[in-house]
Amino acid sequence: MNAIARIAAATAVLSTVATSAFAATGAASGGGLLVWLFLGFLGLIVATQLVPAVMLLSGIIQGVTSGSAAEESAR
């Protein structure tokens, strides 16, 4: 029981001391060149993934619309 009390006390002390490590150090900067390059790269990835998504969606729409026309001509 004494060991549990020691562990609880140590955890409490360390958690109160460690919270200051997560405090903000100052005002955030506007972002450097590396940040903007990273965001641009992410935007490029998203834009590149949109091309196959649009092609797939147009294929699905064509398949649905042409499938209904083929059923009507078969009747």
TrEMBL record:
Q: Which N-terminal residues, if any, form the signal peptide?
A: 1-23
- Domain of life of the source: Bacteria
Q: Membrane-crossing residues? A: 33-57
UniProt keywords (A-Z) are:
Membrane, Signal, Transmembrane, Transmembrane helix
The protein here is known as Uncharacterized protein
From what organism does this protein derive?
Trichloromonas acetexigens
Question: The organism's lineage?
Answer: Bacteria, Pseudomonadati, Thermodesulfobacteriota, Desulfuromonadia, Desulfuromonadales
